[in-house]
Write a structure and sequence with these properties.
Two copies of one chain form a homodimer. The first copy, chain A, is an alpha/beta fold. Chain A contains 15 helices and 17 strands. Chain A folds into two domains: 4-215, Aldehyde Dehydrogenase, Chain A, domain 1 (3-Layer(aba) Sandwich); 229-374, 3-Layer(aba) Sandwich (Aldehyde Dehydrogenase, Chain A, domain 2). In chain A, helix 3 (41-61) packs antiparallel against helix 7 (155-171). Chain A is globular and about 75 Å long. The first copy, chain A, starts with a helix and ends with a strand.
């Protein structure tokens, strides 16, 4: 078996060819991949059944969570979604070759900033075999080679999908080394050390996995360990919106990274909002932990006492921390101190309060009268996402194709030398903006 | 004296205010800073003389390089340039608040990607006191707070400039904590550990400094340790352009990161190009190290034998490595193997050869018939630069204001909840592109 470094170096060589593929060549390959998944549905489901057979006893002994088993299981509907997903990615605009800055420096000397692939992307994902398909489609569309390390429980499913996709892509003219499947336990550690050969690591899985990856590599990592999101109900809030958004943000999928963990309520509306909201949340099975001020309002209700630790906790569960604040400033300060820079929402009818909140809250998504759960690549119109980034530098937020490309500066001269632009008789740069042809 | 963490936390608090300053407020502050430097020229020069007096004996004993002493020395011309530089930054477009993506997700639910400041930028710079002025101007214009750690040899100059700039900025309405000067030796190590408080580190100085910083912090670092640039003379090159560009790229400022280190020449033109070029380079004082093929062509000329180490070496001096290659592919492979992803040039009249070179060479700048020495923020039309990045993710290449901002997604709803978009009766997203208002 080839080592990770060998696979990465072959992928690097293949990535140079991927980088110069035309859009229609990439789209034809994606169409071929979609067709091959459809044509080989039975083989994929049969491989998946082998994984499920190995997994079932583990569920029964409690070694594997039921939810993980459900994510592992493929069926015809999931296969149809996979195929549709690949076709959707094919239909997106090509993110490579976009000119984002164009300027004439001087006569005959033109500078362009042009988007280009990143190179070799290493992806670590857990259980879900559909992740393999989505990630590969996004990487190919963006001209990147991809190293795939799936979960051990999905070995047979991943291998089947990998072989089918690679054969289809290869027949459609993509280099065979543009994708590689890593299967050994030690491959993750090797990949994290492959600086220079691997350009970007994307861990998709638990907070613990992401944190492990972040702490054990010098390669840039795209993703986020924490998703500690807040909803702040301003004193100028429409309380009906506040109620509906809070319930949606907590209840619709509490394990999601974009679910709300802490509700901040302005003192002036806490008395009107909290009693009804807390009742509704309790009816949805939400356990609550409140500060003193909120507990004073809802005496008798089942709101436990919040401690400092609660403001730091991403519950990933039907639990909500609640805090009453005296001002917009206090809300912003709390969010900047405890938030994870993921997604933060304000509920208010006061445009100035939103503008203030937007300018000062330090997060990838800052929402006005909408649920934090909209933070998602598909919902953002990206077709799909490779992850959500809470980093400050590009890319951040849900990351689709655009986050899978970087750029190069292209300078086109006619023999231009710098010496002509220096010294007492220096030529002056024209610095005239030109068309982004 | 306050600790770095205290200064960073105060700067963080100030950065929230900087983030919501209007363009004209920032420009007024920059004009005030320019005016204050002009008005206090004598005090600045007098402080600089104290640094020079301390430095002079070190130059005489050889403990300080003459070049370093020259960079340390301020005079009226340098002060005028400083003032002009600040005014130029003020004249640039405001990089904050630019909308780079706008889409309607559904009726009444609109998503915008809006550029915003990064937060607190920590800058480490050596000798040049003018760097303090340029960096501060760029940070303020981009709405960032800045921690400045200058070289010990420029202590008096930096302190004078810092006090003058801070007073002027503060009088013009910027928060006083938006800039801090760090002076203790141990401050660098503390700053590198200030994750969460400092958002970006920019080391400006030697390769050794940059490498030290990169290896000792988890905070994103903007910069580059190496600048190993190539000029490749294609078989379809105009040899006069090749000659002029190679000499410019090597001789005009050999210590610069964008100077050429290795010349690659296609076998078919090596015989015509090399004898004359090598003569001209030798006359400019350039020492050369060639592979066997190039030395065979220039028998008798003073070209030493190159070893594998030469292809890896950034000489920062009047030394050039020369290698004859058999094809465009070989040139690209050499550059991708030995280059530092900084700036790479091809000399050719063949557009297809350039397109291939542009697509496959992995570097922040890929030039066609122009000197590598154009890689510079001012020359690119950015007004100034905080550094040049060889990283793959944004920002890369010369980094001006645009690299000092990141973005937030702004979602504007009217109480929208995610639950309405899921399940069998899910509303469909419209995903209609809208004006970037």
């Amino acid at each position: 078996m080839t080592s990770v470094i060998e696979a990465a170096e072959k992928a690097k060589a293949a990535s140079a060819r991927l980088a110069r593929l035309a859009s229609d060549e990439k789209n034809r390959a994606l169409a071929a991949i979609a067709g091959a998944i459809e044509a080989n549905a039975e083989a994929i489901l049969s491989a998946n059944r082998r994984d499920l057979e190995r997994a079932r006893p583990l569920v029964e002994t409690g070694e594997m969570a039921e939810a993980l088993y459900r994510r592992l299981k493929l069926d015809e509907a999931k296969l149809r979604d996979m195929v549709a997903g690949v076709c959707q990615v094919a239909a997106l605009d090509d993110p490579v070759g976009e000119v984002t800055y164009a300027i004439e420096l001087d006569e005959g000397l033109r500078l362009y900033r042009v988007s280009c692939p990143i190179g070799v992307v290493g992806v670590i994902f857990e259980s879900r075999p559909d992740a393999l398909v989505q990630i590969t489609a996004l990487c190919f569309k963006s001209g990147n080679a991809v190293l795939l390390k799936g979960g051990r429980e999905a070995t047979a499913s991943n291998r089947a999908l990998f072989e089918i996709i690679r054969a289809a892509a290869s027949d459609a003219g993509l280099p065979a080394d543009a994708m590689a499947l890593l299967e050994r336990r030690e491959d993750v550690a090797e990949m994290l050390k492959a600086e220079g050969a691997v350009d970007l690591i994307i861990p998709r899985g638990s907070n613990a996995l992401v944190r492990f990856v972040q702490e054990n590599t010098n390669i840039p990592v795209l993703g986020h360990a924490d998703g500690l999101c807040h909803v702040y109900v301003d004193r100028a809030a429409d309380l009906e919106k506040a109620r509906a958004i809070t319930i949606d943000a907590k209840v619709s999928y509490p394990a999601a990274c974009n679910a709300v963990e802490t509700l901040l309520v302005h003192r002036e509306v806490a008395g009107d909002l909290l009693p009804g909201l807390i009742k509704a949340l309790a009816e949805s099975g939400v356990a609550m932990r409140g500060d003193q001020a909120s507990r004073a309002i809802v005496t008798g209700e089942n709101v436990a006492e919040a401690t400092e630790a609660d403001w730091h906790t991403e519950y990933c569960d039907l639990i909500l921390a609640i805090k009453v604040v005296g001002s917009l400033d206090e809300a912003i300060a709390h969010i900047n101190a405890y938030g994870s820079r993921h997604t933060e929402a304000i509920i208010t009818e006061d445009a100035a309060a939103f503008e203030r909140f937007f300018a000062e809250v330090d997060a990838a998504g800052v929402y006005w009268n909408a649920s934090t759960r909209f933070a998602d690549g598909f919902r953002y119109g990206f077709g799909a996402e490779v992850g959500i980034s809470t980093a400050k530098l590009h890319p951040r937020g849900p990351v689709g194709l655009e986050g899978l490309v970087t750029y190069k500066y292209k300078l086109v001269g006619a023999g231009h030398t710098v010496a002509d632009y220096t010294g007492p008789k220096a030529r002056q740069f024209t610095h005239r903006r030109i068309a982004k042809e």
